[in-house]
C-alpha cells in the first residue's frame, strides 16, 4: 500500500500527464477545425464524414462530451501558428502541461479580445500573469481573476459586458415522461446574487454555514440540520414557497390583473370517497385526492368536478377561499403555523379549513387556521384531523399509525399580541377534571 507521500506524488504526476494528453488532443482538435473550414463546404473533413462541425467530429472520435470537444477546439487554437499573439504565454503553459485546457479556456474567455480601448500588449501582460497564477488557483478563482483584469483594463466596457451576460439569462421547464418537470437555466450575476442569498439562508446550517450565537437562530439551525429532507429538497421547497408568497402578495403586479389559477380535474365520486386519482391540467402525472384537497383548500386552484360519464358537473367558486382580510385576521390571531413546534411565520402559511369546504365547512376565521405548506400537506395526506373546542382552542388529532390513542396535541397560537389580549380579557378558567386543556 502506498504511503501518503507516494499517493500524492502519484496523483500529481498523473495530473501532469493528463494535462499533456489534453494539450495533444487540443492540437489534434485544432487541426480538425482547420481541415473543416467553412469555405471548404462539403469537402471539409467534418462535413465529408457526416459530422457537420469539427466539434462534433472531435466528440465522436475521441469520446469526450460535447462541452469538452468545444473547449478542446477553442484552446487547441492557442497551440497553432495562427494563435492570437496576446495569448502566447497561455499556449506555452498548456503545451508544457503546467496549465490545463479548462483553465486556459477560462483565461481566454475572461480576457476577451483587444478593442479600441484595450491594447493587445495590455492583454498579453494580463494573460502572462494569469498563466503563471493558473497552477495554484482553482478554475473558479482563475475565471474571476481574469474578469477582474479585463474590467481593470476596460472600465468603459463593464456595462456592455454586464448587458451581454444578462442577455444570456433564461429559465426553461421541461415536462419529463415520469411526470416530473426538469428545470434548467442561467442566472446573470445580479439575478444570481438574489437567488444565492435566498439559497444560502435556506440551506447554510446544513452546509456548515455560520454558527449562530442567537438562541433562536441556533434552534432554527439545529432543526434544519435534523430535517429528513435532502439539501436539494429543502432548497426546492423554499423556492416554491417564495414564488407562492410573491405571487399572492400582489398578483396583479407580476401576473396581470387576474390571479393565476391552476385547474384540478377530479371525478365527483373520487372526491366524495377520497380515493382514486386527480389531475392537474397540462400535467401528465396523476395526483392523489388528499393533495388535490390541500391545494383546493388554500390556493387559487380551481376544482373542476366530473360525473362518472366524464361530463363536467360544476366549477369551483372563489367563496371556498379565505379573503385577504380573513387571512389578515388569521395572521394576527395565529402568528404563524399552528402545528406544534413549527416556526414558519404567517407570511409563509396557507389558510386551512378545519372542516373541508366540500363537507360543508365554512370559510370562516373561527374554523380556519394557518398552516405552513409542509404541515398543510401532512394534515391532508396522512389522516390527521383538527378539533376545535370553543373554550380550549385547536388541537391536532394524529392518525392511529402515529398514536393508537389519538391523543389531542395542542396547537397554540404564536401571536404575542393576541396572547397578551387574551390574558387581559379572559378570566382564569377552572381546570377540567378530565380531558385535556388546549390553549388557543
TrEMBL record:
Classification of source organism: Bacteria, Bacillati, Actinomycetota, Actinomycetes, Micrococcales
Stretch list, region Disordered: 403-440
Full protein name: HNH nuclease domain-containing protein
Domain HNH nuclease: 325-377
Amino acid composition bias (Basic residues), ranges on this chain: 417-426
Record-linked InterPro entries: DUF222 (IPR003870), HNH_nuc (IPR003615)
Amino acid at each position: 500500500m502506498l504511503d501518503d507521500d507516494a499517493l500524492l506524488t502519484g496523483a500529481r504526476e498523473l495530473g501532469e500527464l493528463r494535462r499533456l494528453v489534453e494539450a495533444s488532443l487540443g492540437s489534434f482538435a485544432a487541426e480538425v477545425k482547420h481541415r473543416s473550414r467553412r469555405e471548404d463546404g462539403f469537402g471539409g473533413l467534418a462535413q465529408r464524414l457526416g459530422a457537420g462541425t469539427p466539434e462534433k467530429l472531435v466528440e465522436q472520435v475521441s469520446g469526450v462530451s460535447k462541452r469538452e470537444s468545444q473547449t478542446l477546439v477553442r484552446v487547441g487554437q492557442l497551440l497553432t501558428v495562427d494563435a492570437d499573439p496576446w495569448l502566447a504565454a497561455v499556449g506555452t503553459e498548456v503545451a508544457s502541461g503546467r496549465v490545463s485546457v479548462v483553465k486556459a479556456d477560462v483565461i481566454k474567455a475572461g480576457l476577451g479580445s483587444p478593442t479600441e480601448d484595450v491594447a493587445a500588449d495590455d492583454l498579453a501582460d494580463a494573460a502572462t500573469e494569469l498563466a503563471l497564477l493558473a497552477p495554484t488557483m482553482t478554475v473558479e478563482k482563475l475565471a474571476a481573476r481574469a474578469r477582474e483584469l479585463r474590467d481593470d483594463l476596460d472600465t468603459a466596457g463593464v456595462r456592455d459586458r454586464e448587458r451581454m451576460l444578462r442577455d444570456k439569462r433564461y429559465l426553461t421547464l421541461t415536462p419529463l415522461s415520469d411526470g416530473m418537470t426538469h428545470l434548467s437555466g442561467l442566472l446573470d450575476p445580479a439575478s444570481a446574487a438574489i437567488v444565492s442569498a435566498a439559497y444560502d439562508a435556506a440551506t447554510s446550517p446544513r452546509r456548515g454555514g455560520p454558527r449562530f450565537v442567537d438562541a433562536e437562530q441556533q434552534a432554527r439551525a439545529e432543526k434544519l440540520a435534523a430535517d429528513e429532507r435532502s439539501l436539494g429538497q429543502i432548497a426546492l421547497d423554499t423556492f416554491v414557497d417564495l414564488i407562492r408568497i410573491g405571487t399572492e402578495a400582489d398578483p396583479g403586479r407580476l401576473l396581470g390583473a387576474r390571479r393565476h389559477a391552476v385547474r384540478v380535474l377530479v371525478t365527483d365520486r373520487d372526491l366524495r370517497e377520497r380515493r382514486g386519482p386527480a389531475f392537474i391540467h397540462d400535467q401528465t402525472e396523476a395526483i392523489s385526492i388528499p393533495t388535490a384537497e390541500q391545494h383546493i383548500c388554500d390556493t387559487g386552484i380551481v376544482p373542476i368536478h366530473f360525473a362518472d360519464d366524464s361530463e363536467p358537473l360544476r366549477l369551483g367558486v372563489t367563496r371556498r377561499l379565505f379573503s385577504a382580510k380573513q387571512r389578515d385576521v388569521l395572521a394576527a390571531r395565529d402568528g404563524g403555523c399552528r402545528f406544534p413546534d413549527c416556526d414558519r411565520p404567517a407570511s409563509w402559511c396557507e389558510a386551512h379549513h378545519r372542516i373541508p369546504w366540500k363537507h360543508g365547512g365554512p370559510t370562516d376565521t373561527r374554523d380556519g387556521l394557518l398552516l405552513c405548506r409542509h404541515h398543510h400537506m401532512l394534515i391532508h395526506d396522512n389522516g390527521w384531523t383538527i378539533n376545535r373546542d370553543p373554550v380550549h382552542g385547536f388541537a391536532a388529532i394524529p392518525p392511529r399509525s402515529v398514536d393508537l390513542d389519538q391523543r389531542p396535541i395542542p396547537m397554540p397560537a404564536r401571536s404575542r399580541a393576541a396572547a397578551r389580549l387574551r390574558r387581559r380579557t379572559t378570566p382564569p378558567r377552572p381546570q377540567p377534571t378530565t380531558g385535556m386543556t388546549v390553549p388557543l
